[in-house]
Structures are given as structure tokens and as C-alpha cells.
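=== RUN LOG ===
request id: a7f3
mode: sequence -> structure
chains: 1
length: 228
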Amino acid sequence: MSGLTKVLLLLAVLTAGAIVWWKLNYPIYSWNQKLTVTVSTPQGEVSGFSVVSVSWAKNFFSGGWGGALYHLSLRGDATTIDLGRGQFLFAILGYQHSQETQCTGLIAPKLFGDEKLYWSPDTFRQVQAAKGRGPVALPQRLFPRFLRFRDIKDPATAELVDPDDLAKSFGPGFRLVRVTIEITDDAVTRGIRNILPWLSRQVGWFRLNAGPDLPPIGPANLIDIDTL
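=== RESULT ===
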């Protein structure tokens, strides 16, 4: 065996060892979740759903480095419900750089695992084990944030929607019936840009009058999220 071959073999062994070490010490827990929202309208019940890929990866810069213990990534679109007559309700994915309760990446860990220790390996494994269980109704405390646009073509018309009072935003006869989540093998769904084509442009934060404690909301809360 030549010297070069020995060096290449050693490098291959070291690389494989490093990959195994990394996977053992910095695992990634992932699943696909289907969020379905059903609304009662004057024309009857309508539903909308989206399938989002959720990944929790142990953060290399956690602990003494001062970073969060896990890095959360969401791949997919906000849930869109077509209420008819040009009106749409959106269940947003959550907030960038935020661990707020309404982030949809937190719903399944809090529902299927330990609500207080929702970002732990045991909790993540409990979520993964819920695959095949079917849709589970969410308690209101785990509802995502809801959003609408008075003019679907104008991001400046964004408004938060009260899940207890859809009639205030959409008119008499509109009522939220249920919100469910399901851990699934279904593929990530896309299509929100068909409703909101301006999401492809550089649009700033929405002008919401929602109080000083609410993080900013914008296009990044409707499609694909990474937290630090």
C-alpha cells in the first residue's frame, strides 16, 4: 500500500468518524405536520390545510456559547383557507427569532410531549411516534396566529384575526370550527404564492396595530422559517 493510499484511507476513516460523532452529539429531529383549519361560513363549512416540514437540530453554539439549545427550521407555507368571495384566512407559521407559543413549530411538541420541556429529545421522539395517529384537535392555547388582508393584493392591509370572533373580520356567519394537526408522511405543500404573488418581492413588515409586545409580522412569517 502506497503512502498516498494510506493517507487517503486515514482521511476517510477520520471523516467517517467525525460524521458519526456529529450525528450522535448534534442530532436532528424532524417530521412533517399537516395543519388543517375548518371555518363555518354562510355558504357552509370550508377547510384549508398545509403540510410543513419541521426540524429541530441541536445547536453547536448552545450552552457556554450563549445560543439556543436547538435550532428550529420550518419548510412550507402558512395554512390558507379560502372563505369565498375573495376573502382568505391565513394561519401564519410563526415568528422569526422567537419562541412564542403561536409558532407552529412548537405546536406538536407541546401537544404530544411535555409542554414545559417541549424542546427535549424525549418530546421530539414522542412527536415522531404520533405519526399515523391521525388528526388531533388543538386546544385554543396552541392555536397559531391568524391573519387576513382586507385587500389580498395589498400587504399594507394586513390585520390580525381573533379566532373567537371571525365575524368581526369577515362578517356575520363566519366562525372558526376547529384546528387540527397530524404527523404525516405527506409531502410539503406549496401554493401560497398563487394567492399572494407579492410574496416573491421584497416586502417589508406588515403595518399591524397589535401592541408593542407583538413581534413584527411580514412575508417571512408566511413561508419558510429559520430561528437562531
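=== NOTES ===
The chain has five helices and ten strands.
Residues 14-25 have pLDDT under 50 and may be disordered.
=== END ===
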